[in-house]
Amino acid sequence: MIRTGETRGDDLLGLLLQFNNENNSLNNVNNSQMTKEDIIEECKQFYLAGHETTSSLLTWTLIVLPIHQDWQEKARQEVLQVVRKKNPDAEEINHLKIVTMILNEVLSLYLPVIALYKRTYKECRIGDLYIPAGVDLTLPIVLINRDTELWGDDAEEFKTERFAEGISHACKVPTQMAFMPFEWGPRTCIGQNFSMIETKVALSMILKQFYFKLSPAYAHAPYTVLTLQPQHGAQIMFHPLN
Asked: Which of 117, 120, 201, 208 has the fewest CB atoms found within 10 Å of its own CB?
């Protein structure tokens, strides 16, 4: 495909190649064409991020729900009521309000990627702060999610009910930008919806079949490698419901 210039545009690789071909046909005036190495690295990152972030979200959810048994049971009752088939379909997934609230709260406290890293390509101003071009910026999302001015004095507590009215009403400041586990704006994570759907499906199937609690061997110690992970593993004991 790279040699011939043929593109289909029905997956990430095809879209990137299509973008390159279109820019090439315009003589690449803006110098925005990607190299083959850029395209390969982008696909590798997409594959890694798509696996790591979803598995991290599901892992922390399975750790948190045994600690908060009331929310585990609320989520289970919702799943048993909404998901009538063996496997949930798209319509059923969209009606899992409590499950969505739980996942959002887990993302708030244990988001897979705790910081965003950006570089300014031109000088800019954010409020009274002037930032010249070529500056590397670290945006500590994990600190934003635990900011008491945004979320209240219980910012570090597991309070699923804060998302009862949706993301825009979850914090004290009426904005969705206080909660951005998948980034924000035109560069928001392309796999956001897929990751949430995948996690909801997996969690729903687990809740339908198992009651689970933490092993006495579990030690709560979040730490970051590529994503936020339990340092000593997640020792979880599953018990069949039937």
From this structure: 117
